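B., you asked whether I could sanity-check this one before it goes into the benchmark set. Here's the sequence:
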Amino acid sequence: MSEFKNFIEDIIDNDIKSGKVTEVCTRFPPEPNGYLHIGHAKSLCINFGIKTKYNGKCNLRFDDTNPSKEDTEYVESIKNDIEWLGFKWDKLLFASDYFDVMFDCAVKLINKGLAYVSDETAEEIRERRGTLTEAGTESPYRNRSAEENLQLFYGMRDGKYADGSKVLRAKIDMSSSNINMRDPVIYRVLRAHHHNTGDKWCIYPMYDFAHPIEDAYEGITHSICTLEFEDHRPLYDWVVKSCDFPEPRPQQIEFARLNVTNTIMSKRYLKKLVDEGKVMGWDDPRMPTLSGLRRRGYPAAALRDFCERIGVSKANSEVEEGYLQACVRDELNKTADRVMAVFDPLKVVLTNFEGTEDLTVENNPNAEPLTYRTVPLSKEIYIDRADFALVPPPKYYRLKPGGVVRLKGAYIIRCDEVIQDTDGNVTELHCFVLPNSKSGSDTSGVKVKGVIQWADASTCIDITVRKLQSLLTDVVDGVTDFNQRFNEDSLKVVCAKAERSLLTAKVEDKFQFMRVGYYVLDKDSTKNNLVFNEIVSLKDNFNKPN
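And here's what the prediction gave me:
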């Protein structure tokens, strides 16, 4: 964490100074109805970062109060993603662990005259809720006695009533300027198998009722959530106070959620992409899920750095996708080994080179200590077709007829002959290796400005490369609907020639393909077919010198 304090830390500092809080405790409370995405990374970094900064605690709690949309698959994926991001929770909890507590709290509210059972439909409740400028209308069931409400509520619990036929509503204020306080529903009848409690319950609490009870019961000091819950804070405070939880009660604090350009932040739409088979699953490397970003090769450290850089604020904004990619490049530049790969191979014959020579090539110039690998060089190699021009433009420093270029980690070569087919296409180059021009011991006296990657024809391997783009196209003519913006060309598969050293790579190993970009070995790889996902290109518009 940086030394700069954000507004959340200012609040915590004041609470500690005043004696209100002695040990800071936060929580990360995802609903297990999908995989975590890049937006959740910000909340994770805030909550677990506070734990670290204040030597406090942070619980992982699954808000599993809606069993029809939740699954153990999502529970396990969330746990894996949090651990991968580098965080460790103090307690692993479920909202469903507190269903008995929540039921007892509901009974308490009924006995205090602060809750009642209503027979209204969801539509009728909406019609009577009122508007932002007009007060709501009281339910015809609002003045039922506590005895009748208890009997009905127990009947709801015991399965006597059909789904949707009755609800329990908090009795607050139908004329409140805050619509959330106009007798909100706090329990509904729902017959659905629960991943954690099975078929024990046929009634389930609503999020706005369950969440503050969970926080208060666990002793959470600061309940940190995104801005859309700001209008729910009065209800949060009403619940913990009306249920007689002792002081100090948890304090809800809201911050601006993370939005990234051309990035889907809706779990509902991400699930739609998975269900419709438009992606390879929740961990498709084009997906903004944490598991997708991990598969794409984004380092966990880069995501933490990104969240640290963008900071915490109260104002909603959108961060450029390129800024996230810049953080990824910064991390990979320090950690990724360099290898050579040729995407559009052009055959080159070294006319005066015989046999095979093992060259010693640096893995990563930024690593400490430096390490090296052996790269064989023989008479025939491949270079990228883009590194040769039959008719070069001005200031062209790569290979051209009669021109010279250095092979990375090897020798300077001169193009003496160009072989073309009957249509004029270049099919092969014959080049001369300049004597005494070996990298690291060059005494040839020849100065070259161009250095290119290459692949030894006799030992290189064929690899499959996935070129990746955003799942969304740019907004054009005000069209923001995800369905209309889906990028049908977000995945392209190409073949390349690469160093044989990649045969020892393991899944999730990351490399810089020199002069091309950063790539990661994908789990779809087999012994005979290595598959690499593009992480980011080498281009960086966010860290250019002024």
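One thing to flag: Residues 155 and 161 are 7 Å apart (CA to CA). Otherwise nothing jumped out at me.
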